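Slack export, channel: ligand-projects

TW: morning all. Re-posting the request from yesterday since it got buried. We need the structure predicted with the small molecule present, not the apo form. The ligand is magnesium ion; the SMILES is in the block with the sequence. No rush, but it would help planning for next week.
GE: picking it up
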Amino acid sequence: MAVIEDKGALQAKAGAGISISNVSVVYGAGGAEPVTALKSINLDIQDGAFVSLIGPSGCGKSTLLKVVSDLMRPTAGQVAIGGASPAQLRKAGRLGLVFQQANLMPWLNIRRNIGLLKSLVAGHGGTVSAAAPSVDALLDVVGLTGFGEKFPHQLSGGMQQRAALARALALDPAVLLMDEPFAALDEITRDRMAFELMRVWQQYRKTVLFVTHSLSEAVLLSDRVVLMSPRPGRIHRVIDIDLPRPRTPETRLTEGFSKLVLELNRELYEVMH
Ligand SMILES: Nc1ncnc2c1ncn2[C@@H]1O[C@H](COP(=O)(O)OP(=O)(O)O)[C@@H](O)[C@H]1O
Ligand SMILES: [Mg+2]
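GE: finished. pasting the full token output, ligand included:
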């Protein structure tokens, strides 16, 4: 957190675009059995867009998200987020990450879990972006008002993921990077969370890169769906989702929605055979 003064990182505005250029990742390069997980990925994501990555298991979705979130360096190529590097933004605490597990601190209540990153920055003498929302505002936006004093084990899985989303938004991130955030939830909760996420996204307008296995979830949420092919992971096709917003449960009953899910299904079948 010491690099919070980093100018490039603080200048990256909320809703920054993501530019992925020629990114390749080889695991175990130089070893006996190198695995090419990603090969020459090029993708430009506009400010404030919601983009989903889908593709068969093992096609490199998590690897791509890790590169964008600076959890690993690509073997080749680069990523820029609103003109800053992922490393600059990570050091400044301005990458909002949400994973399949909420990973809340069990000994801190929800309010303190959500405020934890702010406390850490303050504890290191850093400055939090003026646009960072208050913990109360975050509790409110994710529908957890009244649950701030509860501990993680007192909350359902869906509520824990809401808290994880609030935590990801706490430092006014430049982007939200989500790797199968709803995969561990039951279907009914998962469905509800999709609409909650859209509401939060409409309010904060962060650029979202979202990994999912669910074709209908990808169509419901996204402006664009990026379909990846396996081994080595490449972009097979990018499909524009031109369904009107706001999207509601009724959106799924429309012909346009069914057509897009069917088209994705067909394309997915194609990349797997
Ligand atoms: N640390 C690692 N070392 C070696 N191979 C890995 C490692 N992480 C992932 N892989 C391989 O890279 C490929 C892509 O993995 P991953 O990005 O997790 O795919 P996805 O998220 O789409 O399921 C897979 O073949 C996986 O086995
Ligand atoms: Mg994965």
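GE: first-pass observations. The chain has one domain: 2-272. The CA atoms of residues 66 and 72 lie 6 Å apart.
TW: perfect, thank you
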